[in-house]
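Batch queue: ligand-bound targets. Current item pairs a single chain with pyridoxal-5'-phosphate. No template structures supplied; prediction is de novo from sequence plus SMILES. Inputs echoed for audit trail.
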Amino acid sequence: MAKSFKTFLKHTAKDFHNQSVNPPVVRASTIIFKSMKHIRITQKKAQKNPVGGHYDYGRQGTSTTYILQKILTKLEDSYHVFTTPTGFGSVFLAIFSVVRPGDEIIAADPVYSPTRILTQDFLKEFNIKTIFYNPYDLKTLEKSITKKTKLIFVENPGSNTFDFQDLGKIISIAKKYKILTAIDNTWGTPYYLKPIKLGFDMSIVSATKYYSGHSDVMGGSLAVNKKVFQKVKAAEKITGLRLGPDDAYLITRGLRTLDVRLDRHRDNAKKIASFLSKNKKIKLLYPFKKNSLNFRMWKKYYSGASGLMGLKIKSKNINSVRKFVNSLKLFGYGYSWGGFESLVLHQEFRETGNRKFMNLAKDEHLVRFHIGLEDPNDLIADIKQALRHLK
Ligand SMILES: Cc1ncc(COP(=O)(O)O)c(C=O)c1O
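Prediction returned. Tokens below.
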């Protein structure tokens, strides 16, 4: 029987051996074998089928991590998915796997600020140069390509400014010059966008966000195609960047309801966006206005939108922006996103970093909302009362 992914998520990983709906958490440093001969048999199997879940030591994972990897591989439509202790671990692993001293990276200007620090500053010390391109002008990408360019690193949409790029065009530029590609797909997750199918070599998701969905665990995933698999596998082995079984279990549990939660985040966010779009002081950084470039680029590649959005607020009075943000009662103040609850951040330099192509006037301010799973009418009422302070 053909099963949709929604059905698969509810029925996968049942444990008939223990007669439990969910699989057990298998914690192990030592994996024990009946004899030395059995260790060698397992190692041979692992060599023959490196994605088959054959382990001889706990650092390689246990059946608990393997179950999560199999589910994610299906969701991503990829050759394999590596799981790491944080989302940023997956960003690092993707880059470390394919870039060497002397190489160059071209990265989207609005990448997540730690990704910018890693590429622009840290890797520079290893003689790896990064050039940033304008997400709305891919000529700046193509003209930055040199013989040394090894990797194009995309994040879509851009962190905090939510710039939606022409992903297909980026892939065709990369293919023309035979350059590897990676994308941070945490915003849409493969539930709404499947980058490996689109032609990316690597796709990163911070599992801390929507996969877990409950703001109580950290993790990352790195989906790969066959072309880069061995390189990433070697880097994974040498860095030891692997997710532990307890966190893998929690992320697998979160995934059971990924579709339900994401669809609700999407519906709630649409209602909030519709309310905010009527306010003249606010420009929505969210794929909402049908004739906008952002909407067209989103529509071209995504089957849905998540709950994270930006507000570009025009005001000469920064204190009134702060007052607006601080008057919200149902929005928590804190980093991260993707959990069941609504969150808000007033974005200042610390969050956006030192960007080359961000045009923010002095009287423009960035606020980020994560729209949670609350009743959207309550959220709208809360925003309404807080907006009274915006001057
Ligand atoms: C777009 C994006 N990518 C990666 C990360 C890093 O994920 P983690 O916090 O799980 O390390 C974050 C975290 O906020 C993020 O927003």
